Amino acid sequence: MIAGAVPGSSSTVWFLSVASDRISTFDVVLPTEIPDKGRVLTGLSAFWFARTREIVPNHVLAVRDDGPGLDQDAKAHVFDRYYTRRSAAGGSGIGLSVVRAIVEAHGGHVDVASEPAKGSTFTLTLPSLAAEIDAE
User: Fold this and answer.
1) pLDDT digits (tens, 9 = 90+) for 23-51
2) 58-136 — its CATH code?
3) DSSP per residue over 84-127, as a string?
């Protein structure tokens, strides 16, 4: 939940955003697929990013898994280039370093929360680009 001031007012607004691809639910319910579903979802996102840019300067994406989790040493190195615990399975260790480089190149940051045997959550925070979308 995020608290923010309404522009030009002393009122406080609480904003809770739970994002999901609920339109895909209709792919299961309806007898035919939704045409241009990706464009619809992108349009909805752009609309809400523009409407909330004054109170929500960043957008957050979290990806959670139920894998083996990471110990403290692994968490300290998981974003390092060529770091892998899966070399026997063909892992090269470049995936998360590339994710970090892309996110940071766009002014964001990426973090990991994890415990052994409890899975991991990777959180990407990116600045709002709603003003750039409006300019297009």
Assistant:
1) 565 665 666 777 777 677 777 777 777 77
2) 3.30.565.10
3) -S-GGGT--S-HHHHHHHHHHHTT-EEEEEE-TTS-EEEEEEEE
